[in-house]
Amino acid sequence: MAELKQVSFAPDVLARVAPDVSLQRHLSIGIRPNLRNFTEFKAVEFGRSSQLEHNENNIFASSIVKSGSTTAITTISLGIVEDLGNTHRQRNQHFATIYPQIEILRGRSGAPTDEEMIISQDLFETFRHCKIIPQESLNIDNIGIKIKDEETGEEEILYPDSNESQWQYVNLSSMHKKPFQFVLLANTKVYSREVSTNSVFDLCFASILKALQDLKLPRCYVNDSITTKISIKSRKSNARGLVDTNKGVLNLDLRFQHSLQLNVKPGTVSSNYGVIGIEKKGDPEGDDIMHLDNEPVLLTDIEGEEEESTILSRISIVNNSQTINRISLVSNGDITLETLRRALDISKQRASLNC
Questions:
Q1: pLDDT digits (tens, 9 = 90+) for 110-136
Q2: Which segments constitute the Exoribonuclease phosphorolytic domain (predicted)?
Q3: What are the C-alpha distances in Å from 15 to residues 10, 20, 24, 69, 117?
């Protein structure tokens, strides 16, 4: 009979061949494969680049979030739709959301992956249920009009709230009778993904929220190469200032911008956790077998192949120092009430530090 030989693997090879064994070996000695403590989050750095923001290209806000070797860059652009808020208000939906598109760059092209679509959908639902963006803050009020003086040939943009004396002589079009709203579109690119899907969600949430806090909305006006029949500065005719704007199109006035009003409290942050039991060798009767410890281990900010592929019970919490905005649980039987309480306490402490 051939003699059996013990096979040994280097740590990085064992992490790929048997990630569950590698993780259990690390946890049994009180450390994680990434050398962080069980409840230690990776540092998150925020930045902003004005080079990313080109209003002429419909980019009005941006943010850069970096955690370890993973970077998320978000740009926010605007769309305009006719307000259908009457139906929404009947359903008590007084808060809007943002439409995110997540791209995890891995040097490939093609259709979005399942992971990208799931994260995008989760962010869409999270911003809506957390009630961060009031619906009324996206309303387009006091739509202006661009006119051309027939005598001087000069063009001027008039607004009902800042040009009251001249506005009364303007014939309004159907564009001024319809309510319009902005739609927020976010494009987030994730570079050097070395964290779990849950951590990518946290980084994208932080990046989009930071961009929203810096977002400034422009004013809108109607422009259809309009020429006044009689100069609005003339006072010699009862027909002065008549303007035909029946075929107007909304345009953005980049000279005037105001900050987006958000319903977000300081310290709002998204945190993710993994829950797993530690296997211990031996039992009270002395048998040389493996068994799970009674109290599962709570790990923050899942990272690395070992943790992502082995840990099946997950907790995701969006909160600030006072309230909980969202809790998501995926349990494989490891999550206990005590574990959930610890996760809530850690999330509250983390939010307090971010205030």
A1: 788 899 999 999 999 999 989 999 999
A2: 61-218
A3: 9, 8, 11, 19, 28
